[in-house]
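S.,

Sequence below, as promised.
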Amino acid sequence: MMYGQDPNTPATLLRSTSSLSPAVDEFLATTTETLTQSRDNLARNQEQMQRQANKRRRPLEYQVGQRVLVDANRLYQAPRGKLTHKWVGPFEITDVLNANSYVLNLPEHFKNTSSTFNITHLKAYKESDREFPCPPPLSYQGGLPVYEFEKIVGHKGPKNNRSYLVQWKGWPVDENLFGPASQLG
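The prediction came back faster than expected:
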């Protein structure tokens, strides 16, 4: 309420009030009819678009034991760029909590990461003949395998106790892991 009367709003123009001019009444009737037709057309078009979009959609479902890829952003914090891998894996599904949550069997170096993922962060893994197994270690020292690292792709922690995220030579990106500088040799 303002100065003793209600302010005019666009909705007050659409109220059926009698006016002194028949042209105003005709304009209001035309505007109201056009607005109603527009709303009906929008609703009808939205339903049609929804039917078309959902025509080929199927709900995603994964079973226990199936292998999936995980969105790389959900596993670890690493530098992002145009050429980095978007999906990491494959990992095996060990449990289905509900239609949207899945528990995966993650490798030991992801122990600080939750193994439960939303379905939006998973993608079905397709087996391929072109897939190559991970290469064997390049050399052995004292009976233990020695792996060569290709590059350091990130780090965390203070300078006196810093851990480095290492990409190993000949290994996929999902095998990157953090380790102290003393282990890098």
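The first strand starts at residue 67 and ends at 71.

Coffee later?
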